[in-house]
Design goal:
The complex is a heterodimer of chains A (162) and B (369). Chain A is 86% helix and 0% strand. Chain A has four helices and no strands. Chain B is mostly helical. Chain B is elongated and about 85 Å long. The chains are: A mainly alpha (162), B mainly alpha (369).
Chain lengths: 162, 369
């Protein structure tokens, strides 16, 4: 088995196990509590508004929005890691049908793997910092995935019937 | 349907009756079929009705704020929570069924490289299917079982069984990875040459290239949405919720009503973008997987091409017309459902071919004995 195929399959399996472990930990210890916090803050915001306590209402609605911001990114990171892990394994299984030389195939595989790790990591880090770093990581990761995928799609189309 | 003359190089040893690979392939396609059919039923009979109920409850909450009725707000939010849970658990069940179907097909691909005994591989495959069924069924039941007789404050029995399903799948993942690690450490060649690696038919190549293209389109759309709309959409969401509550409390009923209407539209736009993005990528992965399994589809090349084209067409139509729901409403939704139906028909067609292949293989095996 060549290096590009091995990188995609082992990398995909490792990423998938990591993502499932993260998802399991998240579902048991964080998700339910986060959803409760989002829902109760939103309801509190409207309740305070009904009682004409507007500063408290604004604070509760802001807390709900912050909770939603974090929740969306945590779920996105988990979902994208799992999805990308599957993509890595599937493409790894079919990678000898990409009609390029092994050197180019390895770079395409490396780009896809690095992107698959860094893009969701950047999304997850956005929950810690709203600065440029996490956004850059997410954008760079997704760009790597897009360019690698374009190359792989072209490689599949280029491959001919033996 | 004629028997294909080219499908004569298969090895019964790599696809034995009740073997791990056969369990993963057939179980995986059945899981995907169940997930797609469940998703289509959910989209037609639950999704839009549920959205209307959530919108109605937000309207009731806003009205209760205007009236200074805190108890009315509590009731409205209780209803919103119930409707969101009902929708969320059904979406989760749909997504996990399909996701586990993909995982099963991938594990089927890897079976020749899993250095474990056939009995261990069979047990892992059975354990996987148990977890892959338990998790979505458990998630689906969360809304209906709730916290009845639960020993925990926030997690009910359905959720516990769903998590158990997740643990089973996780254990299988670790076991398969260990088998793969042993294979690479042993430096031996596979005992059974993999007939799947020889598939280079037109249908196989079309599914591989078409699938990669669908995934690429999905990523481009996702990157565009995240780059140009996500943050603005989140800020607008927060501003509109605030306008509903604060506007209603400040005797500005028109502002609150306008915010409520805009909020509904924003929710639809967000849901449609996410659904289009995820569906086109998932169907792309499905096409690639099925491209790899074409040597097992024991049909004439003409029929294999028909199923491949139908699958790619449905995989493109569904997400594109889900996206077009923003402009064309339910008409686009109906066309999207037809796309889903095309995928289901193509999957049934390919599954039929795989079942024919297993029957032929088993019959040949009996004759040899």
């Amino acid at each position: 088995m060549n290096a590009s195929k091995k990188l995609l399959i082992i990398g995909g399996l490792a990423l998938g196990i990591w993502a499932m472990g993260f998802g399991l930990y998240y579902a048991v210890f964080i998700e339910h509590q986060t959803l409760d916090q989002i829902g109760s803050s939103l309801a509190s915001g409207f309740t305070f508004a009904a009682q004409r306590h507007l500063p408290e209402a604004r604070a509760a609605l802001a807390a709900s929005a912050q909770g939603t911001y974090v929740y969306v990114r945590q779920v996105d990171a988990h979902g994208h890691w799992i999805g990308l892990a599957m993509l890595l394994i599937v493409l790894g299984a079919a990678f000898d049908r990409v009609g390029f030389g092994e050197r180019l195939r390895f770079f395409l595989a490396l780009g896809l793997f690095v992107g698959a790790v860094t893009f969701p990591l950047g999304v997850l880090l956005e929950t810690v910092s709203r600065g440029f770093g996490p956004k850059f990581l997410a954008i760079a990761g997704s760009a790597l995935i897009i360019f690698s995928l374009a190359g792989i799609a072209a490689g599949f189309a280029r491959a001919s019937e033996p | 349907m004629l028997s294909p003359p080219h499908a004569t190089h298969e090895s019964p040893a790599s696809f034995p009756p009740l073997g791990a690979r056969r369990t993963f392939v057939i179980g995986g396609i059945l899981l995907i079929l169940a997930g797609v059919i469940f998703g289509d039923i959910f989209a037609v009979f639950v999704l839009h009705q549920n959205g209307a109920r959530i919108s109605g409850s937000f309207s009731a909450a806003t009205h209760a704020v205007a009236m200074g009725n805190a108890a009315g707000v509590a009731v409205a939010f209780q209803n919103i929570g119930d409707f969101l849970e009902s929708r969320g658990t059904k979406v989760d069940a749909h997504v996990h069924m399909i996701g586990f179907g993909y995982l099963a097909l991938m594990l089927a691909l890897l079976q020749p490289m899993i250095a474990l005994s056939e009995i261990a591989k069979k047990r892992l495959a059975a354990l996987f299917l148990a977890g892959a069924v338990l998790l979505p069924v458990g998630v689906f039941l969360i809304h209906y079982v709730g916290l009845t007789d639960s020993p925990f404050a926030a997690i009910g029995w359905a959720s516990i069984f769903a998590d158990l399903g997740g643990v089973l799948v996780f254990v299988v993942g670790v076991g398969e990875f260990a088998g793969l690690w042993r294979y690479w450490r042993s430096r031996t060649q596979p005992a059974v040459p993999d007939e799947l690696s020889r598939g280079r038919s037109w249908s196989s190549r079309a599914l591989l290239a078409g699938g990669a293209l669908l995934v690429l389109i999905g990523f481009l759309h996702g990157a565009y949405y995240a780059g140009f709309h996500l943050y603005a959409s989140e800020a607008k969401d927060q501003a509109l919720v605030s306008s509903m509550a604060i506007g209603a409390a400040s005797n500005q009923p028109l502002a609150a009503a306008r915010a409520l209407r805009d909020y509904d539209q924003l929710q639809v736009a967000q849901a449609v973008n996410v659904a289009a993005h995820s569906h086109i990528i998932e169907f792309g992965i499905l096409a690639i997987l099925l491209g790899l399994f074409q040597p097992y589809v024991y049909l004439s090349e003409r029929w294999k091409r028909i199923w491949a084209i139908l699958l790619l067409a449905g995989s493109f139509i569904l997400p594109v017309f889900v996206f077009m729901e923003l402009r064309w409403g339910l008409v686009a939704g109906g066309i999207a459902d037809v796309g889903g139906l095309l995928v289901v028909i193509a999957l049934f067609g390919m599954l039929t071919g795989i079942l024919r292949y297993t029957g032929r293989l088993d019959a040949a095996n009996e004759i040899v004995r």
